[in-house]
Every structure is written in C-alpha cells, then in structure tokens.
Specification:
The protein contains 12 helices and 8 strands. It is α/β, with parallel strands linked by helices. It folds into 2 domains: 159 residues, Rossmann fold (3-Layer(aba) Sandwich), CATH 3.40.50; 94 residues, ProC C-terminal domain-like (ProC C-terminal domain-like fold, Orthogonal Bundle). An 8-stranded mixed beta sheet has the order 3-2-1-4-5-6-7-8, with helices on both faces. The model has no long low-confidence stretch (mean pLDDT 95).
Amino acid sequence: MKTIAVIGAGNMGSALIRGMIDTGYVKPEQLYVCDHQREKLEDLAMQMPAVNYCEHAQDAAEAADIILVAVKPYSIVALFEEISPCLNGKAVVCIAAGWDNRMLREQLEGRGASWLRVMPNTPALVGEGMTALCEEHTLSDEDFAFVKGMFESVGRTAVVAEKLFDAVIAVSGSSPAYIYMLIEAMADAAVREGMTRNMAIEMAAQAVLGSALMVLSTGEHPARLKDAVCSPGGTTIDAVIELEAHGFRSAVMEAMEACAAKSRVMTKH
C-alpha cells in the first residue's frame, strides 16, 4: 500500500491519477495531490472525492512514499527546496523534459532521496501512452517495479538507457504533434474531395489508430505492411510515390533530428 504524491495536477499528472484509479492499481486514499492552481484541485475533487488534496507540496510529499514531480521544468528547483525536509527515504519520479540524471543528482544527492527520470507522452490521457523509464536510476527494485506499474496503468512502458532519451523525446514524447498534423492534412484533403469535416477527421484518425495497432499486434515491419496495401497499378502506390517525391520520410526524420537536438540543448542548462 504505497502512497503517492502527485505534485502538479496538469494534463499528465491528472491522467496518471485517473489511470491508476480506473485500473484499480491504487486506491484513491493512497494518492496525495497538490497543485498551485486551486481550481484544478477543485475540479479533480468533484470527480474523485476520495483522493487526498493538499494545499502545500510539502504536505503531499511528507505523506507519500513516492513523489511524482509533474510541474514545469523551471519550477523544479524551487519545489525541491520547498519539500527538502520531507525527501529523506522518498523515491522521486521526475517527468519534466530536460531534467536528466545529472540535474536530479545535483538537487537530490545528500537529501536522502532516490530518483528516476521518466518521459511519458500525452496519449496517456486516453490510456494509450508510451512511457520511457530511465535505466540508470537509484530507486530500489521494489519502488522501480511499482512506478513501472503506475505508468502501465496509462499505456505501455519501456526501460531505456539515458543516452537514448533524446531519441525517446523525438520518437515518443513529441511525436503526437506530428501525428496530429498528419491527421489534419489527411482530413483537409478529404474535405477538398467533398467530405464533411467531422467525417474526414474521424476517418483519418481511425486510419492512423488502426495502422498503429496493425504494427503493434502483427509485429511486421511497417514497410511490409505498407507493401501489402500497395496493389500493383493501384491507387495507393501513386499516393506513396507522391509522398516520396515531396520528401515525406526525410521531412519526418529531419523534424525528429531537430527535436532531439533541442532536447540535448535543454539538458545542458
């Protein structure tokens, strides 16, 4: 019956709270939630009244075995100073972009806390997230397994070496934005062909969802699945040729390279 402090009840923090409760991973009474915006806490309290809501981060941290840091990156140093008296013996889980092990060590070493770097993504809000847990951490095996289960309540998890976290951010953390742009572009093209906007968005989104499930459920290489759709002399191969002519794949790869490069810059600060 581990207790969890969720400090920061924004999209990701609240998604994890709902996921853990909805899947039965924890009971509401095991959660202590704090956010500086009182209206967020009031909204959550209306939906999940049995959760413990705290006005101050120190109160939540003191009551918990595991502290999930879900605040903006620029607020973390001040937060650690605030909860410093409560850190001894606690496991700190940080989901902030740009906060690597070096930065966590500088803030937490000597305060008696263990730490873990984590990178989730926004589809966690609908239970289909992808979360990377850093292979290099100081949590006990028991705490690490428990935290892994926390994030599995909102999707899939993978244990990844920290040297690959810039790639994780590019391929998983930031990538929902690329997919939304793809869906929007597909829907625009369908509207041009005469389809209603709502129908176009639904069809485009379902095509992306179904295609992703095909990759995950079959284990086939995406190229083979693509080839299976491209009938000789058919419509799909013409569309694929147009995408290639306009640098579709290279544009995606260059965008991800830019994303990873920005991630490397952020962790140097």
